[in-house]
């Protein structure tokens, strides 16, 4: 059995590899294409009753390897506490991964993944081919719901030539799209994370758009691969704050775009079983600017996203029911936005414990939940019948959130049949986009709630869905 040195570099310790202890950087990290984090002494923190492992870090994994994940009826896995975020913390704390626990969590979940060794990066020939494929077609799966390429091709792709971490995450993403190369995804992902964490601790790299783009793509790939991902948002928030982007009177188009994408990822209502608290980036730094029109990435009106950023408050339902709407370029957009609006109403009631299933007082403008649910399904039916999954796939994929919410609370055969049909359309589309199906897991959660939540209210069913996601050790992003 290999004896691992206690004097090895921090990267090898975290990877549980034998370090050759070459200084200032070890050869093992160099050969694996990873940033060697050196040998300096580090402070260790964690519960006082926890025995520190020989790596010098308190490891608290919250996720099993993918082959072992099955929905089960057992105790919910303990996840990272919600109070890990302090918006008044020093900047040096904000642009780093919150703790060794979370750094290990992000890094180790990709280790081999039951598919491949993380020992060495693939050959230059393989990497160059993947990069070529990503630059020509792969990146298009990351474009906004409007189907436009936006700034990705013109502003982000060229940054791969000068940023190792960005190039590595692009390679990981492209490998995940190729059935013959998908085994390489965790190898590239570990390398990308290693370089990215190093970038977050290099002051001059905090000024680069490439660092923000890398963090966003790490989130995107982690979401698609059903990995824990929200701890990455804290690092992104710190970079935004360090560069003054959050408070800048004027920003470049790319800075504006990256800020909006990060803010969208941070909207808490769009993630089931989120293990970190929201930093309210959208509410504080996007909604406050009074943007109008359609947000490119989500395909939703700014005014509607502003309401979703406040979900979980009594005022949110009033705002959603009174939303005046926006002008769209085609009818399917109107159906989509109506589905979102009413799904938000149901979701908000579940968060507040207000099921509203009984008839409200005569003077009340609030519709019963069963009426709201029917409105969502009517919009979903119109989208499915329109042929959008054939002709407007980027926009049609946006039904994920309202479909999940309405499906979760579906009460009869007709509603559940439409739920399965719409999820089937999403799953057929996802097979062409990326390995694995987030939609399949979402449908599994919904059907398990149908089986175990009979007769229960909105709040109880949402709690069951969250429990099932926690048992799978995933953060399920819903848009």
From TrEMBL:
Keywords: DNA-binding, Nucleus, Transcription, Transcription regulation. It comes from the Eukaryota. Gene3D superfamilies: Zn(2)-C6 fungal-type DNA-binding domain. InterPro entries: Fun_TF, Zn2-C6_fun-type_DNA-bd_sf, Zn2Cys6_DnaBD. Pfam families: Fungal_trans_2 (PF11951), Zn_clus (PF00172). Its main location: nucleus. Residues 8-36 form the Zn(2)-C6 fungal-type domain. Transmembrane segments: none annotated. SMART domains: GAL4. Signal peptide: none annotated. It is found in: Nucleus. This is Zn(2)-C6 fungal-type domain-containing protein.
């Amino acid at each position: 059995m290999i004896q691992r040195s206690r004097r090895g570099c921090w990267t090898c310790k975290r990877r549980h590899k034998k370090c050759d202890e070459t200084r200032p950087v070890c050869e093992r990290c160099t050969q694996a294409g990873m940033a060697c984090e050196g040998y300096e002494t580090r402070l260790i923190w964690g519960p006082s009753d926890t025995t520190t492992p020989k790596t010098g870090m308190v490891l608290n994994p919250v996720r099993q390897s993918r082959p072992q994940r099955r929905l089960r009826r057992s105790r919910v896995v303990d996840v990272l506490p919600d109070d890990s975020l302090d918006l008044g913390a020093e900047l040096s704390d904000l642009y780093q991964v919150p703790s060794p626990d979370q750094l290990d969590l992000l890094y180790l979940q990709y280790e081999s993944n039951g598919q491949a060794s993380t020992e060495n990066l693939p050959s230059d020939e393989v990497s160059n081919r993947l990069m070529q494929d990503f630059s020509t077609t792969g990146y298009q799966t990351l474009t906004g719901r409007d189907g436009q390429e936006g700034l990705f091709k013109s502003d982000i792709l060229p940054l791969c030539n000068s940023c190792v971490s960005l190039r590595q995450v692009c390679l990981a993403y492209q490998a995940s799209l190729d059935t013959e190369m998908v085994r390489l995804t965790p190898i590239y992902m570990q390398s990308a994370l290693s370089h990215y964490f190093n970038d977050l601790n290099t002051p001059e790299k905090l000024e680069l758009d490439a660092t923000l783009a890398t963090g966003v793509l790490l989130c995107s790939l982690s979401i698609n691969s059903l990995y824990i991902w929200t701890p990455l948002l804290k690092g992104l928030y710190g970079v935004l704050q360090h560069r003054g982007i959050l408070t800048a009177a004027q920003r470049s188009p790319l800075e504006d775009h990256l800020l909006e994408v990060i803010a969208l990822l941070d909207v808490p209502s769009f993630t089931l079983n989120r293990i970190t608290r929201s930093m309210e980036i959208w509410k504080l730094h996007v909604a406050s600017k009074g943007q109008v029109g359609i947000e490119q990435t989500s395909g939703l009106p700014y005014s509607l996203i502003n309401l979703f950023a406040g979900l979980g408050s009594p005022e949110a339902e009033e705002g959603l029911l009174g939303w005046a709407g926006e002008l769209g370029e085609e009818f399917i957009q109107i159906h989509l936005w109506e589905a979102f609006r009413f799904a938000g109403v149901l979701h908000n009631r579940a968060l507040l414990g207000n099921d509203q299933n009984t008839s409200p007082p005569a003077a009340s403008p609030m519709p019963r939940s069963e009426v709201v649910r029917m409105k969502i399904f009517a919009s979903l039916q119109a989208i499915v019948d329109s042929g959008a999954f054939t002709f407007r796939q980027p926009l049609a994929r946006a039904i994920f959130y309202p479909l999940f919410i309405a499906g979760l609370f579906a009460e009869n055969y007709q509603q559940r049949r439409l739920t399965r049909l719409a999820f089937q359309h999403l799953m057929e589309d996802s097979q062409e986009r990326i390995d694995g199906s987030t939609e399949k897991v979402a449908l599994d959660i919904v059907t398990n709630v149908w089986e175990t939540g009979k007769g229960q209210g909105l709040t109880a069913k949402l709690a069951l869905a969250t429990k099932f996601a926690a048992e799978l050790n995933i953060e399920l992003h819903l848009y």
